[in-house]
Amino acid sequence: MTYQNLTIGGTFDHFHEGHEAMLTKAFQVGDTVWLGITTDEFVKRIESKRLPFPNYLEPFATRKTVVETFLVQHKFSAQAKIVPITDRFGTTLTDQKLETIVVSPETEPVAREINQLRIEKGWKPLQIILVPWVLAQDKSPINSIRIRAGEISRTGELFSVAASWGRRNLPDVLRQKLQQPLGELFSLENYDEAGPAARQPQFRSKLSRSSFKYLKDYRDQTGGASTGAPRRASPATLLNFLAESVLAPSVQLTGLPVMVIAVGDAVTQSLIRAGFIPQVSVIDFHIARKKVFQILADFKFPTVAVTNTIENTAGTLSAKGFTTLKELITGAKYPAVLEVQGEEDLLTLFAILAAPLESLVIYGQPGEGIVAVSVTEAKKWEIKGYIDQFVV
């Protein structure tokens, strides 16, 4: 059976397989499909009250383009009438000719509310077509919230390490590969005074002095001092500040970071000295394998909301290490510190895998400078590929 006028609506953020299933069903049974996409104003007004990372939903233009691309690929465009919607009812209470609505388990209650309101107007209720969840690898629904949080891919694969993974070793085949920067390297080579023996301390002092420009921009944007809570500080500002103090900027990021995660004692201390407190810091009390700090207080964090400790032997990673770091990242209590008994270097991989999309992971590149990694789905796939090669 087909319907002459069918409606379906959504935000369609980080377009995923659940969206594909919904739209495919709609166009299979609808002659004309009135496809509502929530406006940016609606998202800011309503979604920001209930969603994590609301500022990181894709803009309307991006979401609309992705939907249109899907329609073209599946030859649905001729049936589609795309309309911006500014509330959860869309056009269902203004367009009497609509016959049916396609919903997910999440939006089915809204459809029932719509029908009650249509009956009160003397209109026919809509036929409700329920499309089941599309499940991720862990049998939980794929949704945009989980994708933005960095938990899953758009096709439902998990960005995580199972408890059964245990402890594994870095394979020889990856040792040279992981000595290369995972993100953008900001080199110290252009410091005239920074010879090989002086690079680490020069990096720390230069970073501290140059950070004040970044801090001023950060405070101007947030309206207050850095507290370590996730706030709207520009990653471009952060990277530009690093670039100005180290090398000409070669990467311009857009958007705003969900959080900053620092891996390594020198990077963490330098940011603290500058007045910027990472949301999550991973430390082992050593710099260049020399013990520099005795206790956490030596870093001079102005405040620490939560700490945890793990053991991590050099050249290894463990499922417990991933779980512990993930809990600090998602725990919403910042600043958080992970103290590592052993060596923290490889935990950079876990930091990237566990972080929400649009986060920044910053770590030191021994003898060279600092690396800033913008966390994207593509970067998570790259890191997952490395982790999958670790051996028992």
TrEMBL record:
Pfam families: CTP_transf_like, DUF359
GO molecular function: GTP binding; kinase activity; nucleotidyltransferase activity
GO biological process: coenzyme A biosynthetic process
Domain Cytidyltransferase-like: 8-149
TM region positions: none
Keyword Nucleotidyltransferase: yes
UniProt superkingdom: Bacteria
Keywords: GTP-binding, Nucleotide-binding, Nucleotidyltransferase, Transferase
The keyword Repressor appears for this protein: no
NCBIfam families membership: cyt_tran_rel, PRK00777.1
HAMAP family on file: Dephospho_CoA_kinase_GTP_dep (MF_00590)
PANTHER family noted in UniProt: GTP-DEPENDENT DEPHOSPHO-COA KINASE, UPF0218 PROTEIN TK1697
Protein name stated in the entry: Phosphopantetheine adenylyltransferase
